[in-house]
């Protein structure tokens, strides 16, 4: 009796390397394809003015996405970042209306956001509660605090620095874009060139191996949760300047876009893979897609549907890629 044997060709190491590189650069090819498509169907898409619009549209997401990148690299998730951004903006406006001297309202806002992030970190790293559960609860806490401070009202007295950074320009470039670029740059330098950055990757790739190597993984996870909260707080403080007011729901809807942009760029939901360059690509994909759909006059409801489908495809690809790596 003959036994069946598998005569199918085995992938060579060179072929595996090619597939790995193809997956790694898939977001870049996606971005280039979108740019090519919209440049063909819209005469104004490639203009400098439109490029500036895209950068301005993704600037707040970039600030928030920097912290989310740190969190995802440790195989955690933070569902409270957009609510923390709202809360930080409310705190800054609340204390400005209360005549607290500048820049203390902004300092108070960032400290408040950082404190909530620390609670997220302690709950996740020290108490062992899954990060999605801790941060889901924190989103309700932050939202409740925003409603309590505002009593449901809109606050129009804002810190002068928030107004400058949110809507001001220098040499024709919006301060908001500059703040976003600096935030991304600092995040990249920390991840790429510091010991803490290496610990972030090690913690996400294999917590047990990281601990055996002497890494305090609980401390790293707590730290990235604080970083995620601080960047969310910065987005909120700057964002109210762009909006011209602080409301109890100002940035609540940014959560999916912020996490989606990071994942679109190729940062893994399972930790250890990705970084700020990938986040930048993801931000540009989302910005180009949204802007391009507006340029070609796609129906608003269809625009939301298309964006959702692309985000879902990115998540599926992320999970499949992680599964193949483990295999």
Automatic annotation (TrEMBL):
CDD domains: TM_PBP1_transp_AraH_like. The chain crosses the membrane at residues 25-42, 54-73, 104-123, 129-150, 171-191, 220-243, 255-288, 300-321. It is a multi-pass membrane protein. Its main location: membrane. It holds the Pfam family BPD_transp_2. GO terms for cellular component: plasma membrane. It is found in: Cell membrane. GO terms for molecular function: transmembrane transporter activity. It comes from the Bacteria. Keywords: Cell inner membrane, Cell membrane, Membrane, Transmembrane, Transmembrane helix, Transport. The keyword Ribonucleoprotein does not apply. PANTHER family: ABC TRANSPORTER PERMEASE PROTEIN YPHD-RELATED, ABC TRANSPORTER PERMEASE PROTEIN YPHD-RELATED-RELATED. This is ABC transporter permease.
